[in-house]
Amino acid sequence: MFSFVTHLKTSILKYVNKKKGIIVLEIAMALRLKGIAGSDAIAEMTGRETDEVEGVLQTMVEAGHAQETPRGLRLLPEGKEWVDSLLDEEREGVDQTLMNNIYEDFCLHNDTFKQLVTDWQIKIVDGEQVMNDHEDADYDAAIITRLEELDNAVQPVFRNAAEVAPRLGRYVERFSDALEKLQSGDGTYLAAPLKDSYHTVWFEMHEELILLSGRNRADEAAAGRGA
Question: Which residues, in sequence order, are CB contacts of 25 under 8 Å at separation 6+?
Protein backbone atom coordinates (compact mmCIF):
# COMPACT_ATOMS: atom_id res chain seq x y z
CA MET A 1 0.00 0.00 0.00
CA PHE A 2 2.80 2.41 0.95
CA SER A 3 4.52 1.72 -2.36
CA PHE A 4 1.30 2.40 -4.27
CA VAL A 5 0.60 5.67 -2.40
CA THR A 6 4.18 6.83 -2.89
CA HIS A 7 3.99 6.04 -6.60
CA LEU A 8 0.66 7.85 -6.87
CA LYS A 9 2.01 10.96 -5.15
CA THR A 10 5.08 10.94 -7.40
CA SER A 11 2.90 10.60 -10.50
CA ILE A 12 0.66 13.47 -9.40
CA LEU A 13 3.69 15.66 -8.68
CA LYS A 14 5.15 14.92 -12.11
CA TYR A 15 1.80 15.78 -13.73
CA VAL A 16 1.52 19.05 -11.81
CA ASN A 17 5.10 20.03 -12.65
CA LYS A 18 4.57 19.16 -16.30
CA LYS A 19 1.40 21.25 -16.41
CA LYS A 20 3.20 24.18 -14.79
CA GLY A 21 6.00 23.78 -17.31
CA ILE A 22 3.56 23.95 -20.22
CA ILE A 23 1.98 27.12 -18.81
CA VAL A 24 5.40 28.74 -18.37
CA LEU A 25 6.34 27.81 -21.96
CA GLU A 26 3.04 29.18 -23.30
CA ILE A 27 3.64 32.53 -21.60
CA ALA A 28 7.35 32.69 -22.44
CA MET A 29 6.67 31.84 -26.11
CA ALA A 30 3.93 34.47 -26.26
CA LEU A 31 6.41 37.11 -25.11
CA ARG A 32 8.99 35.85 -27.58
CA LEU A 33 6.53 36.04 -30.46
CA LYS A 34 5.20 39.48 -29.51
CA GLY A 35 8.63 40.97 -28.94
CA ILE A 36 7.37 43.50 -26.41
CA ALA A 37 4.07 43.04 -24.60
CA GLY A 38 2.20 43.62 -21.36
CA SER A 39 0.49 41.01 -19.26
CA ASP A 40 -2.95 41.79 -20.74
CA ALA A 41 -1.76 41.04 -24.27
CA ILE A 42 -0.07 37.83 -23.15
CA ALA A 43 -3.20 36.79 -21.24
CA GLU A 44 -5.35 37.34 -24.35
CA MET A 45 -2.92 35.39 -26.51
CA THR A 46 -2.60 32.42 -24.17
CA GLY A 47 -6.10 32.39 -22.71
CA ARG A 48 -4.60 32.42 -19.22
CA GLU A 49 -5.79 34.53 -16.29
CA THR A 50 -3.97 37.86 -15.98
CA ASP A 51 -2.85 37.10 -12.42
CA GLU A 52 -1.29 33.83 -13.56
CA VAL A 53 0.48 35.55 -16.45
CA GLU A 54 1.78 38.35 -14.23
CA GLY A 55 3.18 35.79 -11.79
CA VAL A 56 5.13 33.97 -14.50
CA LEU A 57 6.36 37.21 -16.07
CA GLN A 58 7.52 38.53 -12.71
CA THR A 59 9.45 35.30 -12.12
CA MET A 60 11.06 35.72 -15.54
CA VAL A 61 12.12 39.27 -14.66
CA GLU A 62 13.56 38.15 -11.32
CA ALA A 63 15.48 35.34 -13.04
CA GLY A 64 17.02 37.78 -15.51
CA HIS A 65 15.12 36.36 -18.48
CA ALA A 66 12.96 39.41 -19.17
CA GLN A 67 13.14 43.16 -18.70
CA GLU A 68 10.49 45.79 -18.13
CA THR A 69 10.32 48.64 -20.66
CA PRO A 70 7.94 51.62 -21.01
CA ARG A 71 5.99 49.62 -23.61
CA GLY A 72 5.91 46.31 -21.74
CA LEU A 73 8.19 43.37 -21.11
CA ARG A 74 10.77 41.97 -23.50
CA LEU A 75 12.98 38.92 -23.45
CA LEU A 76 16.67 39.46 -22.77
CA PRO A 77 19.29 37.42 -24.69
CA GLU A 78 19.56 35.11 -21.68
CA GLY A 79 15.80 34.75 -21.77
CA LYS A 80 15.81 33.76 -25.42
CA GLU A 81 18.37 31.06 -24.66
CA TRP A 82 16.17 29.88 -21.78
CA VAL A 83 13.10 29.69 -24.02
CA ASP A 84 15.16 27.77 -26.58
CA SER A 85 16.00 25.24 -23.85
CA LEU A 86 12.30 24.90 -22.99
CA LEU A 87 11.51 24.30 -26.66
CA ASP A 88 14.27 21.69 -26.84
CA GLU A 89 12.63 19.86 -23.94
CA GLU A 90 9.23 20.09 -25.62
CA ARG A 91 10.59 18.74 -28.91
CA GLU A 92 11.97 15.69 -27.10
CA GLY A 93 8.39 14.68 -26.31
CA VAL A 94 7.03 15.45 -29.78
CA ASP A 95 6.85 12.92 -32.59
CA GLN A 96 9.09 14.67 -35.11
CA THR A 97 7.86 12.65 -38.06
CA LEU A 98 4.30 13.75 -37.34
CA MET A 99 5.36 17.34 -36.68
CA ASN A 100 7.32 17.53 -39.92
CA ASN A 101 4.31 16.18 -41.83
CA ILE A 102 2.10 18.78 -40.15
CA TYR A 103 4.52 21.55 -41.07
CA GLU A 104 4.66 20.40 -44.69
CA ASP A 105 0.84 20.33 -44.78
CA PHE A 106 0.77 23.87 -43.40
CA CYS A 107 3.19 25.05 -46.08
CA LEU A 108 0.83 23.77 -48.76
CA HIS A 109 -1.60 26.52 -47.69
CA ASN A 110 0.87 29.29 -46.87
CA ASP A 111 1.18 30.79 -50.36
CA THR A 112 -2.60 30.76 -50.74
CA PHE A 113 -2.96 32.75 -47.53
CA LYS A 114 -0.22 35.22 -48.47
CA GLN A 115 -1.92 35.89 -51.81
CA LEU A 116 -5.25 36.33 -50.05
CA VAL A 117 -3.76 38.96 -47.72
CA THR A 118 -2.13 40.74 -50.67
CA ASP A 119 -5.47 40.84 -52.49
CA TRP A 120 -7.11 42.23 -49.34
CA GLN A 121 -4.61 45.07 -49.21
CA ILE A 122 -4.11 45.78 -52.93
CA LYS A 123 -6.55 45.81 -55.86
CA ILE A 124 -5.94 45.82 -59.58
CA VAL A 125 -7.81 48.72 -61.20
CA ASP A 126 -7.38 49.34 -64.93
CA GLY A 127 -4.26 47.21 -64.88
CA GLU A 128 -2.69 49.20 -62.03
CA GLN A 129 -2.11 48.22 -58.42
CA VAL A 130 -3.92 50.47 -55.96
CA MET A 131 -4.47 50.26 -52.22
CA ASN A 132 -7.77 48.65 -51.32
CA ASP A 133 -9.93 51.36 -49.72
CA HIS A 134 -12.50 48.71 -48.79
CA GLU A 135 -15.30 50.70 -50.40
CA ASP A 136 -16.18 47.78 -52.69
CA ALA A 137 -18.20 45.51 -50.44
CA ASP A 138 -18.49 42.76 -53.07
CA TYR A 139 -14.72 42.66 -53.57
CA ASP A 140 -14.07 42.34 -49.84
CA ALA A 141 -16.83 39.78 -49.38
CA ALA A 142 -15.28 37.58 -52.07
CA ILE A 143 -11.94 37.62 -50.23
CA ILE A 144 -13.62 36.76 -46.93
CA THR A 145 -15.30 33.83 -48.68
CA ARG A 146 -11.88 32.69 -49.89
CA LEU A 147 -10.60 32.91 -46.31
CA GLU A 148 -13.55 30.84 -45.06
CA GLU A 149 -12.72 28.17 -47.62
CA LEU A 150 -9.05 28.25 -46.67
CA ASP A 151 -9.94 28.06 -42.98
CA ASN A 152 -12.02 24.94 -43.60
CA ALA A 153 -9.10 23.37 -45.45
CA VAL A 154 -6.38 24.24 -42.94
CA GLN A 155 -8.18 23.69 -39.63
CA PRO A 156 -7.44 19.93 -39.69
CA VAL A 157 -3.74 20.83 -39.88
CA PHE A 158 -4.03 23.05 -36.81
CA ARG A 159 -6.01 20.44 -34.90
CA ASN A 160 -3.38 17.82 -35.74
CA ALA A 161 -0.69 20.19 -34.46
CA ALA A 162 -2.62 20.61 -31.21
CA GLU A 163 -2.84 16.84 -30.78
CA VAL A 164 0.94 16.53 -31.09
CA ALA A 165 1.68 19.64 -28.97
CA PRO A 166 -1.43 20.36 -26.84
CA ARG A 167 -0.47 23.96 -25.97
CA LEU A 168 -1.10 24.83 -29.63
CA GLY A 169 -4.81 24.22 -29.07
CA ARG A 170 -5.19 27.88 -28.15
CA TYR A 171 -4.37 28.79 -31.77
CA VAL A 172 -7.47 26.95 -32.99
CA GLU A 173 -9.56 29.19 -30.74
CA ARG A 174 -7.74 32.34 -31.85
CA PHE A 175 -8.26 31.57 -35.54
CA SER A 176 -11.95 31.03 -34.87
CA ASP A 177 -12.25 34.26 -32.90
CA ALA A 178 -10.53 36.30 -35.62
CA LEU A 179 -12.71 34.81 -38.37
CA GLU A 180 -15.90 35.42 -36.39
CA LYS A 181 -15.00 39.09 -35.84
CA LEU A 182 -14.18 39.45 -39.53
CA GLN A 183 -17.49 37.86 -40.52
CA SER A 184 -19.25 40.24 -38.12
CA GLY A 185 -18.00 43.22 -40.10
CA ASP A 186 -14.66 44.20 -38.56
CA GLY A 187 -12.32 44.02 -41.54
CA THR A 188 -9.27 44.76 -39.41
CA TYR A 189 -9.37 41.18 -38.16
CA LEU A 190 -8.05 39.86 -41.45
CA ALA A 191 -4.59 41.45 -41.49
CA ALA A 192 -4.17 44.21 -38.88
CA PRO A 193 -0.70 43.74 -37.32
CA LEU A 194 -1.53 45.17 -33.90
CA LYS A 195 -4.62 43.03 -33.33
CA ASP A 196 -5.18 39.31 -32.90
CA SER A 197 -6.11 39.23 -36.58
CA TYR A 198 -6.13 36.09 -38.69
CA HIS A 199 -2.81 37.16 -40.20
CA THR A 200 -1.26 37.75 -36.76
CA VAL A 201 -2.32 34.32 -35.56
CA TRP A 202 -1.18 32.71 -38.82
CA PHE A 203 2.29 34.27 -38.54
CA GLU A 204 2.65 33.12 -34.94
CA MET A 205 1.43 29.60 -35.68
CA HIS A 206 3.90 29.46 -38.57
CA GLU A 207 6.72 30.35 -36.20
CA GLU A 208 5.58 27.74 -33.68
CA LEU A 209 5.56 25.01 -36.34
CA ILE A 210 8.98 26.07 -37.64
CA LEU A 211 10.48 25.77 -34.16
CA LEU A 212 8.67 22.58 -33.17
CA SER A 213 9.85 20.86 -36.34
CA GLY A 214 13.46 21.81 -35.56
CA ARG A 215 13.77 24.42 -38.28
CA ASN A 216 14.53 28.15 -38.14
CA ARG A 217 12.99 31.18 -39.81
CA ALA A 218 16.13 32.17 -41.73
CA ASP A 219 16.47 28.81 -43.47
CA GLU A 220 12.76 28.69 -44.23
CA ALA A 221 12.88 32.22 -45.67
CA ALA A 222 15.79 31.19 -47.89
CA ALA A 223 13.67 28.26 -49.09
CA GLY A 224 10.79 30.64 -49.83
CA ARG A 225 8.67 29.49 -46.89
CA GLY A 226 9.63 31.97 -44.17
CA ALA A 227 6.90 34.60 -44.51
Answer: 83, 86, 87, 90, 167
pLDDT tens series, the chain, 227 aa: 445 433 322 332 233 344 577 899 999 999 999 999 999 999 999 999 999 999 999 999 999 999 999 999 999 999 999 999 999 999 999 999 999 999 999 999 999 999 999 999 999 988 899 999 999 999 999 999 999 999 999 999 999 999 999 999 999 999 999 999 999 999 999 999 999 999 999 999 999 999 999 998 888 888 877 66
Q: Are residues 74 and 131 in the same domain?
A: no
Residues 46 and 153 in one domain: no
Please give the angle made by the CA atoms of 74, 226 and 77, to the nearest 5 degrees.
25
Question: For 133, which DSSP code?
Answer: -
Identify whether residues 128 and 190 lie together within a single domain.
yes
pTM greater than 0.85: yes
